[in-house]
Amino acid sequence: MRFTKSLMVTSALAILSGPALADMANEMTIVSWGGAYQKSQLKAYVEPYLAEHPEVTVVWDESSAEAVAKLRAMNEAGNITWDLVDVEAADSIRLCDEGLAMEVDFDESLAAAPDGTSASDDFGDSIVSDCFIPQIVFSTTVGYRTDMVPDGTEPPSDICALFDLDKYPGKRALNKRPLANVEWALLCDGVPKEEIYDVLATEEGQERALAKLGTIKDQVIWWTAGADTPQLLADGEIFMGSTYNGRLFSAIAEQNQPIGMLWDAEMLDFDGWVIPDGLPEDRLARVMDFLFFATDTQRLADQAAYISYGPARASSAPLVGKHAELGIEMAEHMPTDPANAKNVFVTQYAFWSDYRDDIDAKFQAWLAK
Amino acid sequence: MSDIVLTDTFKKPLGFHVAVAAAAGAFAGIFVGAAQGSSLLGIVVGALLLGALSFLAIEVLGRSAEKAVRWGILALFALGGFLFGGLPGLVMGLLFGWFFGWFIYWIGFNRYRAKLVPYLTSGQVLWYYAFRVICGAIFVFLITPILVVMPLSFNAQDFFTFTPEMLRFDPAGYSLKHYRDFFTNSDWQQALKNSVLIAPVATLLSVGFGTLAAIGLSQPHVPFRRAIMAILISPMIVPLIISAAGMYFFYSRIGLQGTYIGVVLAHAALGIPFVIITVTATLVGFDNSLTRAAANMGADPVTTFFRVQMPLILPGVISGALFAFITSFDEVVVVLFVGSAGQKTLPWQMFIGLREQISPTILAVATILVVISIGLLTVVEMLRRRSERLRGMSPG
How many C-beta atoms surround the C-beta of residue B357 within 10 A? Predict the structure, then answer.
């Protein structure tokens, strides 16, 4: 008796709320990186979405750093608990190749730009794989302590200051992965920028990059998390170090630390969503509905009010406004701003997917020496 | 005891007390010198200063002027510290001045032997104090990381850094904002709630199963006792990551992965070995004729267990429960596998906080947890002593 009654109530509710909502799950687990970046996603599109859909609840899981391993385990256990996962572009390529992430039809699933440009054209080059829905452009770049610049010396403005221990003595912090480090090493060893990846493809080129890094090796602290370098800079433990540009912006503008940053030879990269493969239909329907909303032109531009990462859509760039709390114009802090992007590397996904394992192994062996 | 003088005090020879004081000064000088830029200079200055002070105090001014001399040394060090390092230097100077003022007289008038029996050789006296210094050093080594965390949690900045304002004891360098963040941030509150919901239930399960298993395994007629024991305590021996991965796949198949019950069961499995070990240890001293006596008087086994056996093994059960609780409350590896984001516990939240955003909120949480742990342990220990005293079993 009670069962039929509740069945009637649910079906009545389903009819009332309309056919579109009836088959959507109301709980979403979103995986991201935590910290200021996750906060920017929360403010720019999760909270607005929840305001429109009060029946939905969102659970955050800060596991993006282990996304590939965890998605593999979930796939093997046949128990996908995540609905939407924020990953770096390189990870999305791996997930796509292994069939762990779902392929997306951009023009069908995502909003077109306000002027009618299709989503795939609007995202342009940032679509690095069929499974990857880009959100932001970030860069790996270098920050330094302004109060530790030697007296009578210009503050560094050139990436090769990293390797110049005579002019800028002091410890450095570098990523414990070869990406960016080896490119910078070759550039500062005199390799013309356009030939760097040709050189890096050869055995001698890799040796040469490691030899250049070897000139500063005893002065380097190797970091593994993006928060390490800002902490080391704030401590005065290091003179300069590489990290993500948003971290440096936060330390400089929000925490008022005596830190300066260089944009020279910044390494541009993308971050975005992937949808785990094999979601049940109702959860998938909710995810697609959220994604359509969260990746439109205005939402991506809004995100830049909370963190200094550039929106991945071309049509969002003119809409970037001021910082939500500090009221700073954000456009000039974007890695894609023309004044900052005079000399940039764009991460070469094709190159790195071919050479990553090899160079990684050599780099780790060299580190252990 | 403390006022009894076993050995007379007398003035030590000049060479001895000046040399010892100079050595102590040199040792302290290493650290002060390193902080000021030159250890070598610190050693030389420290040795000369303390040697001279010792000579002055013991040989020239003597025992009668002790009070004035010690105040003088205190003032001298405080002034020196203040000139070198401002307010923090003053505090350090006061500490050093107090210690050396006492030390010079302690050495110079043989007071270090006052509470020892007279027939000890110099070597034995030296070892007596060296042993205590070593114990103290080990204690400091264990406790310092925890103590360092506490002032940092009051940092006004968002970094794990002693800022210049903090070192100057400037109130502007301190803030309660990380504590406010902990109590107002929904992520931390959710994590706290999860931890508080998971740990006690897991503890109850561990204590229930662990106590029963220990009692069963202490019966001589149970077959394969050693093998069963080895299996039951294996979660403690197998590397945690292996248990965690195994639990992940097993729980996923049976639909427990990512559920509250799944995490509680996993933590109970980790806690059971601790309970078994502590309860087994107390059962060794348990006299089985008591249960036979109870049975003889008509008590059934359940009554016997609760009225006779349980009160006697209670200390073992309580310490096992404490270990099981701490295991669950501190655990991060298994919950990362078995739990989903909805079961995020405090250690999980601290773990991601450390990796992604080095925020002193973690230190504030750590400080709160340390205070709670100290309180909890104190209360349990006091309760245990009280119940022992009431039953008249207290050894002391």
Answer: 25
